[in-house]
Records
---
Amino acid sequence: MNTVTEVTPYAQRPKQAQQAADLNDFAAQSINRIFKELCNIYPNWRACFRDADELNLVKASFAKGMIENGIISIAQVQCGLGKARRQESDFFPSVGKFCSWCQGEPKWQGAFCRMLNRIPAQSLAEKRARQATSWAIRNKLSAPEAEKKFKLAFEKYQGLEEQGLLTELVQLPPISYVTEFDKQRNSITVRPEQFKANSVFARVAQKGVHHE
């Protein structure tokens, strides 16, 4: 079986190698600062690591996890540390938990809060999700059921929007206009005798005669 290196075009390898090196440098340079902050936030961190070797292994695991989860900016790290400061738990976070903090609030949660607070939607997917769920959420669903229903609807429409399959519905103008064609069409009277007896068209025409 061919390896990734073997099937990757030669011209792309230096670029990919450089990108990987940049990610590794970012993680290596950041991990000590991250752990310094986390140890200040969680004073009982010494109880979690038996010795320096175990601490170094956890640091390496954090660096690997950050790279795998796309945590590659200082802004993301600051977001994760900010979330750590707001936690009531005294337990040192796992690498997965910290990475989820760095990734920030899921988009559907922000959209859900905007709907509840009657803040305008920020995307077409968000608008459609509101249209599909707002009545049920406000009238008959519990809080967990409402979040679940909105999350499913939002992710559905977000996927369609990302594929270019979601478009704005055509809306009628706020003021209607009557054209000459409309006037001519409305001036024509259709009689039942113009159609075959007892046909659908004859019956419809007969109803029109009754309203004259």
---
Amino acid sequence: MSLQQLNILYKYEYDKERKAAQQLQIAEQDYQQNLLRLQNVGDYRLEYMRRLDQRSLEGIDSATYRHFHAFIAKLDNAAEQVEIAIKQAKALVEQRKSQWLTQRQKVKAVEHLQQQKIKVQEKINNKREQNMLDEFSTQQYVRRGVR
């Protein structure tokens, strides 16, 4: 494979790596947002429980008490749903990370091939240059000998 072909392959694989990195970043942001949602639901539930506790001390009728408990149950359900979303988001982060690492390895492999190709080309060029210098020296020697 020529160096030009390796350069084209490198650009292609590098672009795929960038896209994989972007997808990983998006998945991580989604995961973090879900963690924040869970924290917010938990905080709101705690605040609502404090309100219930305060209202209980002041005296509360049974309908209001049921209303508070029904709403707390809804918050618990919401927390469960967010926990499911967190697990899914975490799995997606792991999948995207694996894809990115795989793509990163491909980029490094192409970089390695490029470096090898450059070294081989340099050796060929150096040998060619040395042969030209040897030929030039030989011709000069022959010319001196002829005189």
---
Amino acid sequence: MSRYSLDFRKKIVEAYEKGDTSIRKVAKRFLVSPDTVRRLVKQYRLTGDLSPRKCGTKKKSILSKHEEAVIDIVEAHPDLTLWQYSDKLRDKLGINVSTTMIDRFLKQHDIQPLSQSLSTLTTLGKPVIQTL
């Protein structure tokens, strides 16, 4: 749903609160859905405010709770694959995480395990020697 101006929201709620009309009639009059009218009226009655609420939720990764332990495991075993990290985290910390979640965590912390950096050093199936 697009965000409606605060003034427009007030007009919708005021039109319904007058009491001489239905939600559907108000929705038709302002060219919005009946659910929008219901939601705005409910929000106004509960909070007294009509400002837009924030969209979505900000869920924290389960790995963020174990950040230090995860980093310690990666530093202690830099040559493991993402699947192996998943197994190790399940064994040591008792948490089940996907390889995607581990990959995202590592990217957020600018960590590149040795197994991933080695796989990027191959060209046409032939290893490339990298000098330090």
---
Amino acid sequence: MPRTALLVSTALCAALLTPAVSRAAADPPSVAVDRFEGEVPFASQPAEGIFTWGGDSDDPPALQLTARPDAPEGEKVLTGTYDISGYGGFTHDFAADRPAHDWSAHRGVRLWWEGQGTGRKIAFEIKDGGAHGEASELWTTSFTDDFTGWKQVELPFTDFVYRTDYQPVGGIDHVLGLTQMWGYALTLPVGVKGRFAVDGVELYGTADQSLRAAVTTDAAVHPVTEGGDATVQVTLTTTGAAPVDQPVTVAYGTAGGTARPGTDYTPVSGTLTFPAGTASGATRTVRVHTLKDRSAEPAETIPLKLTVTGAKPPAEDPEVVVDAHGLPYLDAKLPVRRRVADLLSRMSLEEKAGQMTQAERGAMSAPGDIAAYGLGSLLSGGGSTPTPNTPAAWAKMIDAFQLRTRATRFQIPLVYGVDAVHGHNNLAGATVMPHNIGLGATRDPALVQRTGAVTAAEVRATGVPWDFAPCLCVTRDERWGRSYESFGEDPALVESMETIVQGLQGRADGSDLDRSDKVLATAKHFVGDGGTTYGSSTTGTYTIDQGVTHVTRQQLEAVHLAPYQEAVDRGVGTVMPSYSSLDITGDGRGPVRMHARGDMINGVLKGRMGFDGFVISDWNAIDQLPGDYAAHVRSAVTAGVDMMMVPYGYKDFATTLAGEVRAGRVSERRVDDAVARILTQKFRLGLFEHPYADTRGAAAIGSPAHRAVARRAAAESQVLLKNDGGLLPLRTSQKVYVAGSNADDIGNQSGGWTLTWQGSSGAITPGTTILEGLREAGGHVTYSRDASAPTAGHDVGVVVVGETPYAEGVGDVGNGHDLRLSAADQQAVDTVCAAMKCVVLVVSGRPQLLGDRLPGIDALVASWLPGTEGAGVADVLYGRRPFTGQLPVTWPKSEAQLPINVGDTAYDPQFPYGWGLTTLTPAPRGGAATLKALAAAARAADRAGADRTGAALVARARLIVQQKAGQHITAAFAGPFAEADHLLLTGRYGEAVEKLTAAYRAA
């Protein structure tokens, strides 16, 4: 699908264009772009041509060249019919293998349109710069079909605006230069059947200087301490840096606002002139002097109105703001509780509603809305990044958003959030950690805390103080597309990994949150998202994600709620409810969406557990609640959700919430509680004192020290499932044949939520692939992705197979995914393992079904999704580190066994939960007698509270048991073996060894 095909946001569409006017005598002749006489074929890139596109298979319009006696120009016109449900239209792209066109000498583009009187907007897009028509910068305007019959519609280039809702390349220079044009596109109306006819697309008129010259200011908001001077810089810029050939004047004057002229500031007015011949970059200055009145006050605004002649004016007039001062909430020496109470007492209902509203950065086509609606938060969704995607650009972007908050009465800073779920994964060049499923395999809480600390440092250094992590779901069915976001299937394992909260936030009392290397953490998704029933989802084509969790009250407490109490005890600052529904046996309510479950959010989380942070909704989650929009707002707020993630609907939410409070359907007391919780975290983060990015730590982003932590995490996450004949570790003297789809693909080994929401294959970010790690280890390596290269002469094969990236319900089994290896991966395994001893590494977010191939595989490794440091995988393969990882989830024999989890009555997996062979350490000697002695010692450790000793005793017993079992894993063995690991994690060491003894007897 062409990337230009996305529906143009109505917020970017210009108003109705005026009818065509006769060309001035001085205008040059028009230049034809399309006459539709057959001179341009129906074709697509790289050739020049006209082609259609649409969101669904039936959305592209049907086009043809039609002979018409009423054709405005020539004999034929382009006609078409359409019936579009998503988006659709057509494009004329110029040939990619020829030079781009130069439209800079003209005023605009015009076309003949046969009006149907529909009153619908027709979006017209032009393509500027870049490599070709599908890798260009997009600029758009529109006209309205509110007439009948043929009419020539003129679209001045001055009316075109840069698309902020979608850009195929993320932006090139954000300047409509018109010197490298690659074509145009029309987007047709949605939701109605229609027909159209168009003719004579052409360039007309003489270029307007305002297309080549613009007046800008250094900032839209200029905060100043009372009594100080604000300096507003006014700059003239031109395309190509050419001097202006006509004078440009800027008349200015202070007027309006909340500050009082003569009392709060000295009014100014005048005219700035840039004479003909002025070079691009010339700057003039306007100074506004503010006055002291010696009283404590909120911030006051002084708009500076600019009237520009001869150039394009700034998108908005600048505003001088006299900072708030003297008010108690601004006093950093006061306790947070007092500061919150003071600020809350001063706020209007609209200001409170704004604080409860979170918008997406991509929705900020009008950044002034931050102040106009008093927004409390912005976020970057997956793949929502600045251009370029660098630490400096992140900090600059967020600082620009924070600057907007200075124009509000109380200058409450934004709290900006990102999904940094395995490192700062939206940022190119960041250190990408293994996904949680791999961290769960490490069984190393101290290391997991270090991964959280690295993530926090890299996130905060870009100006982001809030991370929507960690996910505390307990995954109970590996068909779930979010399985890899979980630390594992055992709530005890999840709880043990919650050291990551301290890595992110620091001390549990929140006293470290104002540090430049800590962020606010988010426990998600409350509660039961990992337990949804397969087939219960009603979201699109999802099969399990966002479905229904059917549980007894006891199961809910023991499995899904337990990790949240641990998170609250660790001081987690925010909690995010799940999209899923909860159906508790016997409560008589049936399935209820979590965002409406006040019994769980207000009752259990905030009440019984004592959570004192704030609850943030998931992306547009309230839209899934029953009733109209007002009911959505009422239900979620009343249930205890404090801030709504309403990415593009922030205006509707803020105004609806205020209306519901005024109507008495939502209590202002509930609103006050929500806002107090939000403000508390903002004060703890130190945002009132330091709202802007502290980038001193930016140099450490992606640094060797940070990557060393990720490399160790990748190494410890590797789970050795099989190792016949001690094939691993490899020796550098061996000739190694490497194959498979995931051997040399950093995108695949990083998985979803890497640079974009779904992630993608390929060299998407700096790092080391597994193949590169093997080569760096010093081995003799031959690589053939598809195993087509000759296999003779090699000592051992390493076949790296598994999944390609996905995220959330897109990755659900049954939604275009299954748990089997691809045909190409199967062929690579078969080819290599038939030719030599082989190691198979499975790079995936969940277990893969190997079926009858397992006997032919000498060594098998669950690599999970190791992130950017593939050298960590090589470390254990070549014996620089031992294999120590253990399965965080049960590895099934077949999909029919799912769901299968530790503690199940029927439990007969391929490999049990907790399984994991080791290398470099010989298995301890001994049998039943040794285990009996270990059990006695472990019981003594229980009584003494000697956790480290008890854990070591269990680990020794586990190695003895695994040694005896080999690959003969039966149901009688697997059950007690898996249960032993759960007992270990809950501190019952004696019982764990007893379970291992039972497994030993069954082996």
